[in-house]
């Protein structure tokens, strides 16, 4: 009997152990399935707001590690995120989530970033995180009137910044309003992003020409060129190109190249739209040379004031929090002053953009760490005035009018400007990757040490 009981007892114990192991493995799988769902929800939310791919990958890694994962592999593109977690039994689970929308919504980006931080800090349960994620996904947190106003302000202010008179801001403001309203309408439809950019550019160009013609017929001198340049600034993919360069120099070559190609195609769509408007409505006798600034004092006064207003306008258009805009004003003012002084006394397009961007990126990284927010929120408004909207317009105008020499000259200037911005961002990104690593083994070890310290402090309080 004892022998029989002994023979029977072993398989029974083995069965119980096997059942317990299966239950444990199944519980672990269910847990990490939920963790992945939340992490990828945050990731696609960040992507939809214009966050860089490197920022998205970091957020997913940290959420998974904070929830107990030991090995996490993340791959992100602007259109999708894929993540896998290795379980205790050696198997892996993975999830993939697509992103179909990209908009420059800096306030919502900050909210997704804060949600990621709260999850990592164990400030909310899984149910609360899912509820917050659902709330963020269902609301843009941007009033339509404010979005339209942002478009109008950007167009009006930059028409003056690039050399126009104050009167040029009026038709640019009106055209910007229409473009903003049309952008809201098209964003609700299943409209290809390049097609939407083309339509906005075509409408913006034609409206600029028609409004200026109307003012000129009424006896008011108005520069079509400056008005069109102002409206171009509402659709130039400054944030996209900025993220592309940052991702490439963070080691995400494939993702960065994908974003950069996306930016190039967007620029081509802009050129096609404004070029088509010039062909359909030739300026001809309605061309008026923009007024020259009377003195250096007047030049600097216009440039500094309009650049500050332009940066604030971009913040409004990108739905940035008012507090972040005000905090960033000092950075914007010093950055623009450096750029203007270098442009005036040095004349080197690349060097002027590089040094000014270098300063703006450094300050933005510091502000990002002080306010626990993505550096993009502070960087984009500070460097938006460097985006060569004027050079892009004159390049396109030269191609349309057949003046290839002029198109090549302005195209070269636009390329050097973008290169200076790209190198400036890249240098700072590489510097902070060395000083403050967030990826790879060093970043993981530092993050785990931080979490262990937090747990020890919490146990000490209890």
Description:
By secondary structure, the chain is mostly helical. It folds into two domains: 2-141, no CATH class; 144-438, no CATH class. The protein has helices at 2-48, 53-66, 106-120, 126-138, 144-161, 169-187, 193-217, 224-232, 238-249, 253-280, 296-317, 322-327, 329-345, 349-371, 376-383, 389-401, 404-435, 440-461, and strands at 72-77, 80-86, 92-98. Strands 1-2-3 form a three-stranded antiparallel β-sheet. Strand 1 (72-77) and strand 2 form a beta hairpin. Helix 6 (169-187) runs antiparallel to helix 7.
Topology readout:
Layout lengths: L1 H47 L4 H14 L5 E6 L2 E7 L5 E7 L7 H15 L5 H13 L5 H18 L7 H19 L5 H25 L6 H9 L5 H12 L3 H28 L15 H22 L4 H6 L1 H17 L3 H23 L4 H8 L5 H13 L2 H32 L4 H22 L1
Antiparallel strand pairs: 1-2, 2-3
How far the N terminus sits from the C terminus, by CA atoms, comes to: 53 Å
Main sheet? 3 strands, antiparallel
Report low-confidence residues grouped into runs of 5 or more. Answer: 1-10, 438-444
The share of residues in extended strands comes to under 5%
Cα radius of gyration in angstroms: 26 Å
Number of structural domains: 2
What's the overall geometry? elongated
Average pLDDT taken over every residue: 83
Q: How would you classify the helix and strand content by structural class?
A: mainly alpha
State the helical fraction. over 70%
Secondary-structure element series = HHEEEHHHHHHHHHHHHHHHH
* Record field, number of beta strands: 3
Contiguous helical run count: 18
Please give the order of strands in the largest beta sheet: 1-2-3
């Amino acid at each position: 009997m004892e022998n029989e009981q002994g023979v029977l007892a072993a398989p029974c114990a083995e069965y119980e152990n096997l059942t317990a192991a299966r239950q444990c493995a199944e519980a672990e799988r269910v847990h990490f399935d939920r963790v992945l769902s939340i992490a990828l929800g945050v990731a696609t939310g960040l992507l939809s707001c214009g966050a860089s791919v490197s920022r998205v990958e970091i957020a997913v890694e940290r959420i998974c590690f904070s929830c107990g994962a030991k090995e996490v592999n993340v791959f992100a593109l602007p259109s999708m995120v894929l993540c896998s977690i290795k379980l205790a039994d050696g198997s892996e689970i993975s999830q993939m989530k697509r992103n179909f929308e990209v908009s420059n919504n800096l306030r919502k980006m900050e909210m997704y970033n804060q949600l990621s931080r709260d999850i990592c800090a164990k400030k909310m349960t899984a149910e609360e995180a899912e509820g917050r994620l659902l709330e963020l996904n269902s609301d843009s947190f941007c009033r339509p009137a404010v979005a339209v106003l942002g478009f109008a302000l950007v167009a009006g202010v930059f028409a003056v910044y690039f050399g126009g008179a104050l009167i040029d801001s009026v038709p640019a403001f009106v055209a910007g309003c229409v473009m903003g309203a049309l952008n809201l309408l098209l964003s609700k439809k299943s409209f290809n992003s390049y097609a939407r950019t083309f339509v906005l550019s075509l409408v913006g160009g034609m409206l600029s020409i028609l409004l200026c013609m109307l003012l000129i017929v009424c006896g008011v001198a108005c520069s079509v060129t400056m008005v069109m340049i102002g409206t171009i600034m509402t659709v130039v993919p400054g944030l996209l190109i900025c993220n592309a360069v940052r991702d490439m120099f963070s080691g995400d070559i494939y993702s960065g190249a994908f974003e950069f190609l996306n930016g190039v195609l967007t620029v081509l769509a802009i050129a096609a739209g404004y070029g088509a408007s010039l062909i359909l409505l030739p300026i001809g006798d309605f061309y008026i040379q923009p007024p020259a600034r009377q003195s250096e004092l007047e030049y600097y006064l216009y440039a500094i004031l309009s650049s500050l207003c332009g940066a604030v306008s971009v913040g409004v258009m990108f739905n940035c929090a008012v507090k972040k805009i005000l905090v960033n004003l000092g950075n914007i003012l010093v950055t623009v002053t450096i750029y203007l002084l270098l442009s005036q006394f040095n004349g080197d397009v690349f060097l002027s953009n590089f040094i000014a961007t270098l300063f703006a990126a450094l300050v933005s990284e510091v502000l990002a760490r002080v306010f626990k927010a993505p550096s993009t929120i502070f960087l984009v408004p500070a460097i938006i005035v460097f985006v060569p909207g004027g050079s892009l317009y004159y390049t396109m105008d030269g191609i349309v009018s057949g003046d290839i020499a002029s198109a090549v000259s302005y195209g070269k200037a636009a390329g050097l400007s973008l290169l200076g911005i790209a190198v400036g961002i890249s240098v700072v990104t590489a510097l902070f990757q060395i000083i403050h690593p967030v990826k790879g083994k060093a970043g993981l070890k530092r993050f785990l040490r931080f979490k262990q310290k937090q747990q020890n402090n919490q146990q000490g309080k209890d």
